[in-house]
Specification:
Structural class: alpha/beta
Order of helices and strands: HEEEEEHEHEH
Number of strands: 7
Distance between the termini: 33 Å
Largest sheet: 5 strands, mixed
Shape: globular
CATH class: Alpha Beta
Strand order of the largest sheet: 1-4-5-6-7
CATH topology: Trna Endonuclease, Chain: A, domain 1
Strand content: 15-25%
Length: about 140
């Protein structure tokens, strides 16, 4: 339901001309790495892989999932003419945001991942509060 709610909130926030794909249609192989985000979003010239965190996965699982994104981008198999999407983690509360940000810090991958409260995600995406995504990640 969080994924459908994200889509609705994006529309309500003014997102237009967007591409929004959910599982399994957003799964993609990059080289030898299979990425399985919860959703893929293109809007306003920015691209995102989205992970809707429900607070049920712990550090080992989250680290493994994050490492798959890192392996994909480091594989060199992503098309040169496209920037790798920002991986956006939607979380339910501040405590979970801090938990996931701590894992990202340990991996030293702050430019690839962002953590946003679910309640703020649509507004932040639609109103370019995440402007760095327009320039792409490691493009």
């Amino acid at each position: 339901m969080d994924i459908a709610e994200t889509f609705v909130r994006l529309l309500e926030a003014g997102a237009r001309d967007m591409t929004f794909r959910t599982e399994p249609w957003c799964h993609t192989r990059v080289g030898h790495v299979l990425l399985k985000p919860d959703f893929y979003l293109e809007v306003g010239g920015a691209c995102y892989f989205g992970e809707a965190d429900r607070g049920v996965e712990w550090e080992a699982q989250l680290t493994a999932k994050m490492r798959r994104y890192i392996q994909a981008i480091d594989s060199g198999a992503w098309p040169d003419d496209r920037a790798f999407p920002l991986v956006l983690w939607l979380v339910p509360d501040e405590a979970r945001r801090k938990y996931i940000e701590d894992i990202i810090h340990k991996l030293n991958e702050k430019e690839l991942f962002r953590v946003v409260l679910f309640s703020e995600a649509a507004e932040r995406i639609c109103h370019a509060v995440l402007p760095e995504v327009r320039d792409g990640i490691r493009s």
